[in-house]
Please model this.
Amino acid sequence: MIINEVYDKLLNYQSILTEKFKLEEKKSELPKVLSSKNEVLNRIKKAYLSKYNQFKKLEENINVYHRRMNEMKLKQQELEEKTKFVKSQREYEALDREVGQAKQREDEYQFQLMQDQRIIEDLRNAIENYELSMKQQEEEITKETERVDSEVEKIKEKLDELKGQEETIVNDLDEGFRYKFEKIVKNKEGFGIVSILKGFCNGCHLVLPSEFINKVRSGNDIYFCPYCSRVLYYEETNDNIFALEEEEMDDDEFFEMDD
Ligand SMILES: [Zn+2]
Model:
């Protein structure tokens, strides 16, 4: 294979890989939106559950207060019934005191009952709001899941398409070289093969020795930048040739070799 064909293949391969990496990243990012929505839902559920438990406990308390109030009412009735049959003033006063005590306890229970009823009303509202939020959040998650699934499906289709293109390009490249090149493209933000420009590597912008540039120019092999590991190719542009000749003038070693 002529070296220029290899360069063309690598440039092509590089743009496929760049698209592939972008799509793969998007594919892994997409479900994260869902997980944050699920976290919100879990927080609402937790808050809802805590209010719901409080509500249940108060409901129980209120039932107890009702029962005790009724007990006190009954007791008062019984005591009042007894007063009809008392024989002495002392007996009457004792019963009357007991009635008073029962009434007082009934009032206390009623006071606590009313307090709890106020709180339970607030809780009922809060619970209704949480139920509404949960429903909304669940609906959103369902919609979002559908969207994410369909996006992921589209990405998978595109990736399959790219895989096909990739295969036709790389089928005659060496497996080890292919793996190495893919890693360079990934690590160097999509630029695994760059040109030499005016004596510099166009990837890391460091000056390359003219001897090395000549090797790349000869096209006998594939060369990697000694500084950034990118594959280098040489373009026969006026700028490049001028830069190389200027460099050669200062390069004694090159002249020695030439003689
Ligand atoms: Zn470089």
In short: The two ends are 32 Å apart (CA to CA). The chain has two domains: 29-154, 191-258. Strands lie at 193-197, 200-201, 223-224, 231-234. The longest strand covers residues 193-197.
